[in-house]
Write a structure and sequence with these properties.
The protein has 273 residues and is of the alpha+beta class. Helices cover 56% and strands 6% of the residues. The model has no long low-confidence stretch (mean pLDDT 96).
Length: 273
């Protein structure tokens, strides 16, 4: 396979496009989004699940328009413009935004991605799951996708596979100790860790499969979780057609220079921005 020079998409397609069109009216919250960005998608899915009103503003994160820089100094998405203040305020960084949305929902829609507050241990287990996702699984995804040497690709595939397997073990621990969390449990609902990891697991089934020949771990429980995750309405409404991801991630798969701040961080061995 050779680099065909495909360019990244600038607008959503498929179900995500319909969702953008449904959220075109001004609201107290404006989500600055890039259509292929997984960090955006985790925030977007949370907004959908928590039933918080919002407007979508699709921007080109590589061009970094001034309106994006006004709310995100590094020019990274996602970012929120909070319009209810006399002087609009802003937030960036996906995990910070997710915490903010949880607090907003607690006072308005009374929905939550976490287990009930009456079970702090279950919530702590979810935090352990999300810590693993941020520290291990997400960086492993990019190292695998950006690896060019065949040996590095084999090593990257093993690392990512192990990261997914470790997440499964954390899900199974929660099932043993507190009856399970999120969608891992049949009959459960979308949870914090599900939202945190879903965009990368989803891209593993299309981007990693296409460019690296990656195959997901096998197992009835894991496959059932994948189905529940990908078919959950809050997540499904934020997904574009497969072509968008394959086109937009070709630049990562061939590790083109200055692909993104995330790619540059992986190449230099630094933490993700």
């Amino acid at each position: 396979m050779t680099d065909s020079g495909k360019v990244y998409h600038r607008s959503c397609t498929g179900p995500a496009l319909q969702t953008v069109q449904q959220h075109a009216q001004d609201q107290d919250i404006t989500l600055f989004a890039g259509c292929f960005c997984p960090f955006v998608q985790r925030v977007w899915a949370a907004l959908e699940y928590l039933h918080i009103p919002y407007k979508v503003n699709e921007v080109d994160p590589y061009k970094k328009p001034q309106e994006l820089l006004n709310v995100s100094p590094k020019g990274l998405v996602p970012a929120l413009m909070l319009n209810a203040f006399d002087q609009p305020r802003a937030l960036n960084e996906s995990t910070v935004i997710l915490d903010f949305l949880e607090d907003i929902a607690a006072k308005s829609t009374h929905r939550s991605l976490f287990p009930p507050s009456t079970d702090p241990y279950a919530k702590a287990l979810v935090r352990l799951q999300s810590d693993h996702i941020s520290r291990t699984l997400v960086p492993a995804f990019y190292r695998y996708l950006q690896a060019q040497d065949p040996e590095a690709q084999i090593s990257g595939g093993k690392e990512f596979h192990a990261a997914v397997q470790s997440l499964v073990e954390l899900f199974e621990r929660a099932e043993r100790e507190v009856g399970g969390t999120g969608l891992w449990v049949e009959g459960g609902d979308l949870g914090w860790a599900d939202v945190m990891v879903a965009p990368w697991i989803f891209r593993a089934t299309n981007v990693l499969k296409h460019y690296r020949g990656f195959e997901m771990p096998r197992g009835a429980k894991f496959e059932a979780w994948l189905e529940r995750l990908f078919e959950h309405p809050a997540f499904k409404r934020t997904c574009s057609d497969e072509e968008l991801y394959l086109d937009s991630y070709e630049r990562y798969a061939f590790n083109r220079p200055n692909t993104s701040q995330v790619a540059n961080a992986i190449n230099s061995g630094r933490g993700l921005p």
